[in-house]
Amino acid sequence: MAAQQPKNLNGKTAIVTGSSRGIGAGIALDLAKRGANVVVNYTSTRGERAAAQLGKEIEECGAKVAIVQANIAIMEDLKKLIDAALAISVNGKVDILVHNAATGDDCYLEEMTEEFYEAQTDVNLKAPIFLTQLTLPHIARGGRIVLISSVSARMGMPQQTVYAATKAGLEGMCKVWATELGKKYDITVNCVSPGPVATDMWTECEPDVVAALQPSIDATPAAARVGEVSDIVPIVSFLCSEESRWVTGSTVSASGGMNFI
């Protein structure tokens, strides 16, 4: 019989961006199992179906869920996430904000366009900045902000000029926000940096990107494999809990040792 998750987030309200599938869905469900009410965010029709199913699973945990269609690259859509969180919050506050949504299409520098650059930076960097800004007036004392980075920020992989830069940017922002916002709002801010994880984003990567990473996968110290969603989720949940109160401004490697931080 599987052990039940501790209800250490009872009464909390969380926003998890990009949470209809993959790592985001895993995070949203685990937070619900720990007692949090959760805003599930999706953008596409494909995501809508997955979000509806996830919503049922969250409700089966006894938690409240708000399923919100929002393109986080559009400033006007960000407020929808805040409004949805406040509507299901028991204390009128947002306790947890997980910046998971990202776009990671591949492109060599010689083929780069301004449109490609903006499409990635709007989702991966601009959205976390301005969603956090909108959340601050409503964030609970003792709140948690977690940003999902990537080993790409540090590994110099081809075709990842913008993706790697945005993920490195999140790690830099994490330290700034931990310092700038920590005492003022009594919150912690941390990053989690996964390696390749067996999600749609990984399976849809260009074959040469996968091939370039294969030697690193084979040499990963913990095991010669890509990660699973279940490898990442508990780390994020810990950083959302009271037990992580003395951890802030950190980037936690969740890559099986593919990349040491």
From TrEMBL:
InterPro entries, alphabetized: KR_dom (IPR057326), NAD(P)-bd_dom_sf (IPR036291), Sc_DH/Rdtase_CS (IPR020904), SDR (IPR050259), SDR_fam (IPR002347)
Source domain of life is Eukaryota
Instruction: Cite the EC number.
Output: 1.1.1.100
Q: Does the keyword NADP apply?
A: yes
Q: Protein name, please? A: 3-oxoacyl-[acyl-carrier-protein] reductase
Q: Where is the Ketoreductase domain?
A: 12-190
Listed transmembrane segments: none
If you read the UniProt record, what top EC class would you report for this enzyme, in one word? oxidoreductase
What does the similarity note say? Answer: Belongs to the short-chain dehydrogenases/reductases (SDR) family.
Catalytic activity of the protein: a (3R)-hydroxyacyl-[ACP] + NADP(+) = a 3-oxoacyl-[ACP] + NADPH + H(+)
Q: State the UniProt keywords alphabetically.
A: NADP, Oxidoreductase
Which GO BP terms sit in this record?
A: monocarboxylic acid metabolic process
Molecular function (GO) terms for this protein are:
3-oxoacyl-[acyl-carrier-protein] reductase (NADPH) activity
